[in-house]
Structures are given as structure tokens and as C-alpha cells.
Amino acid sequence: MFLLNSVLVSIFTFLLMFGDSHNRRKGALYVDNGYDQTEIEDMSLEENNRMELEMLSILGLDSTPLRSRSHSNNDPIGSPTVPKFRTFNDVDNFEKLKNTDSRTKLASKFLLDLYDSLMEEDDELSRRQRALEHNLNEDEQFAIDVSDVIMTFDNIDDESTNARPEKGKRLWFDFSKLSTTGTVIGGELRVYQNKLNAQRRNKTVYTVIVYELVYKYSGESSLERISSVSTTQSFSGWLGINLTDSLISWVRLFDYSKGLYLAVHLGDKPGHEIMPEEIGISVVNNGEGTQPFMVAFLEALDDDVRRR
């Protein structure tokens, strides 16, 4: 109960002090006057600034949250920035994240939906509901629970990289900022599959394989298989492909990463490659928000950002 009261007092104090960062008001605290009553005690500007820095540190924020521009002065307080949820090739500000077009910035929508689900009561029932909504396996659930920072990366489309007559899709992500953010404890590629042939049952098993593009000293390139997942045409939803080990290597040797190659093979014919679109897998930005993206789960380098 003491911990709960402390959290409530901290949140109330934070909202009271930072509720309107555009129209800064003098800070104040509700305190017990010794007679089982509460009263407002004004704070000096110096005390206000010092308390602000302490509260920002406790909440893991590096700056005072801003109100959404669409809010009026009579609207409720806007949502604070959440630096523990970040998306690159996009924006860091959470208010901007909320207003991002989900059809074209699916990585942002994934973070926003995940943020909303984490704000719910953290019990076993809500965890199962979260796993169902986001198609998360146990490893992904564990990574979410123990990570300090969750980051997403949009695929950097380059038509020239797919100019060759390939059936698969070449993907590339910019991980240059990962090394300064935290230590990688998990990483996955998420690709979306639409259900096909709904009127007839097709039990054929397909293998979705992710290869790493590797360039040799001779200048020649080759594909190294790093992970895979099985699926059928009747499946609809997100496929998560574990790329943790590769992501750790790319952070250490960023220049070594030359991209990924996504391929689909018939389960009983490993040498028979088909186009991902043939089983409903989206590999391009079609405006529907189903293009592939990467998720990284990190342990923060900064103690102020750590959850525990």
C-alpha cells in the first residue's frame, strides 16, 4: 500500500507540475498538515526545477513532455513522451507517434499498440491477451517483460537492390543507433501474411527463411541462412522470425551488415523457391501497413532508464 501511495503521489505531482509545459505554472505539492488534512504548499522556482529534474529521472524521461497541439487549454493533459518505446526511420516523440499514419508506419503502430497493452493490468490474463493480439510467442513475451527499451526499424526500400530476377525480397535496416542505446537481448523480423484460398483447405507447409547477405573478400556475395519459420496458406497474421544472434553481431560490426534476403520454400521441396506473395506475405509498402519491420529488445545502458 505504501508503494502504491508513493506511485500515486509521484504521478499526481508530475501531472501537477508538468501538466502544461507550454504555459508554465508555479509548482505546488499537496502535503499533510498534521491534522489528517491535506493542503497546498507552494514551491519556489528553484524547488520546482529541482523536483522536476528528480521526477523526470524517476520516470525515465529526458525532457518535459509536451501537450498535443490538437489539445486546447481545457482538454485533459496529453500523454507523456515514452523514451522506452522508440522507432527509427520515424520519430521519437510519443505524441507524434500517436498521430502517425498506421497504414504506412506499421512499426510505429506496433509500438503504440504494445504500449497500450502494457498500460493494462499486468496479470497473467492480460499477458495472454497481449500475446494473442500481437501473435507473440513465449520468447517474445519474455523479451518484452525484461527489456528496458523496445525499438522498431522500418525497412529501407531500395528498388535497385531487387532489380535482379529474384523470387524473394531483399531487406535492409539501419541499426547504427543501437550501440548507443543499450545491449541487445532480443531481436526479430516481423512479416505479415494474408490468408489465401479460404474456400479450399490447403495444408501445404511452407518455410519462410531469412538469409544474411555476406560479401566475401573477392567481392562476391553469398547467402547465409540465419533463421526460419513454418506456415501454411490458411494462416493470417504476423510471423515473428528470431534474429537475436545476428542483431548482436550487426551492432558490433555495423558495416558487416549488408541486408537480409527473405525467401519462401515448399516444406517438402527445400530447393523449390516461390515468391512470398504467392502465400500472401507482404514484402513491399503497399499502403496497407503490412510491410516487414524489425523489433529490437534492449537492456538500457543508462541506469535512469532501467525498469528494475
TrEMBL record:
The keyword Cytoplasm does not apply. Residues 1-21 form the signal peptide. Coiled coil: none annotated. Pfam families: TGFb_propeptide. Belongs to the TGF-beta family. Keywords: Disulfide bond, Glycoprotein, Growth factor, Secreted, Signal. It is found in: Secreted. GO terms for cellular component: extracellular space. This is TGF-beta propeptide domain-containing protein. Its main location: secreted. Residues 33-297 form the TGF-beta propeptide domain. GO terms for molecular function: cytokine activity; growth factor activity.
